[in-house]
Amino acid sequence: MATAKFRFYEELNDFLPPDRRKVEFSHHFERRTSIKDMIESFGVPHPEIDLILVNGRSVDFSCIVADGDRVSVYPVFECLDISPLQHLRPEPLRNPRFVVDCNLGRLARYLRLLGLDTLYRNNYTDEEVADISRQQQRIILTRDRRLLLRKIISHGLFVRAVQPREQVREVLARLDLYRKVRPFTRCTHCNAMLHSVEKQRIEKDLQPKTRKYYQRFMQCPDCNRIYWQGSHHDRSQRLIDKLTAIP
User: Fold this and answer.
1) pLDDT tens-digit series, residues 78-125
2) Could you state, in order of their start, the residue ranges of all structural domains in the chain?
3) Strand partners, 139
4) Residues 70, 5: contact at Cβ < 8 Å?
């Protein structure tokens, strides 16, 4: 059985039962179904919808929902012209792989939360950052203009915002990365991709309440940290919604 996750915004929530309003919820399905039919099966009429993002990418009603899709559904925008979204280039011009200098640790953590490949250590020297950028073709994120003046650097971004959350919004907007966001797929501590793990393999490492109430877990193959959808997951999802809201 396949599973997709949905989130409806603003007045579209009026058509949903209370437990599905303004939250992300999972929907299980077996047969091949268009996104229009699936949305209307929830009771939301398609004329009320103006924008659908599947995994951050704008789609039309004929899109076939696939296992693992994350779907965001927006209402008709009465006061906001979103027509430029129809003219976005198919892919961003830059490859969204980053190396972050030592002064932007919170930004690095947020980008990893969004699933973006981000190298960071709090003891990186400018020379190390520059070398990593050149060797691995990574975009440097920094507030140090001098770092970007190094001749070996070909891809870099001077981050103008001061507050970490505003820095994330700036990076997403300036590099057009909304369709590259894949939340909860990377370890926020070391950047490795997370993998599903059977509960039996990690049971001894779980706290008693976590062991009792949760069944599905992800684990980092590098640092062995364990992730699950507890109350912290809900808080993280709310943060992600704020960070990735298209301005």
Assistant:
1) 334 444 443 323 344 356 899 999 999 999 999 999 999 999 999 999
2) 2-87
3) 98
4) yes
- Whole-model pTM above 0.70? no
| Residue whose C-alpha is closest to residue 143's, from 102, 180, 184, 173 | 102
Contacts of 19 (CB under 8 A, 6+ apart): 25
Alpha helix locations (H) across the chain? 35-41, 105-113, 126-136, 145-148, 164-174, 199-202, 208-213, 231-243
**3-state SS, residue 191:** coil
**Alpha-carbon span 97 to 85, nearest angstrom:** 23
The CA-atom distances, in angstroms, between 59 and each of 49, 64, 150, 152, 210 are 12, 10, 41, 39, 38
Token readout for 125 is 């020297």
State the Cα–Cα distance between residues 76 and 80, nearest whole angstrom.
Answer: 9
Model confidence pLDDT, tens digit, residues 165-195: 999 998 898 778 888 999 999 999 999 999 9
CB atoms within 10 A of CB 48: 16
Q: Does domain 2-87 have CATH number 3.10.20.30?
A: yes
Residue 55 Rama label (left phi>0; alpha psi -120 to 50; beta): left
- For 23, the token pair is 């939250």
According to DSSP, residue 90 is labeled S
Among 179, 161, 178, 162, residue whose Cα is nearest residue 170: 161
Give the lowest-confidence range in 67-71, 75-79, 121-125, 154-158.
Answer: 75-79
Give mean pLDDT, residues 69-81: 70
